[in-house]
Design brief:
Blueprint: H1 2-28, H2 30-70
Length: 90
């Protein structure tokens, strides 16, 4: 029974120390500094990711028009039968 009381007291003391440490860090400004670094890192990552996605989308946009302009179907006049049709069941 004594071991249980001692363990409960040590657990309560540990929780109290953790809470006091967090409150001390909050009021000393260390937590605000850490949160500032995290927010700045997230913002920088978002900006860099947006630039990468924007450049990729721009390249794909112009590549689409280039592909559409370059790929013109070649149609030759003549009469075709179903046996001469290519591209199916090959």
């Amino acid at each position: 029974m004594i071991k249980g009381i001692v363990a409960a007291l040590l657990g309560a003391l540990l929780v109290a120390v953790i809470i006091v440490g967090i409150i001390y860090l909050f009021f000393s400004g260390v937590l605000l500094l850490l949160f500032g670094f995290v927010v700045a890192g997230v913002l920088a990552a978002a900006v860099i990711l947006f630039i990468i996605v924007f450049v990729f989308a721009l390249i794909v946009f112009f590549a689409l028009f280039y592909y559409m302009a370059e790929k013109k179907p070649e149609i030759t006049p003549g009469e075709y039968t179903l046996q001469e049709e290519r591209g199916k069941n090959e």
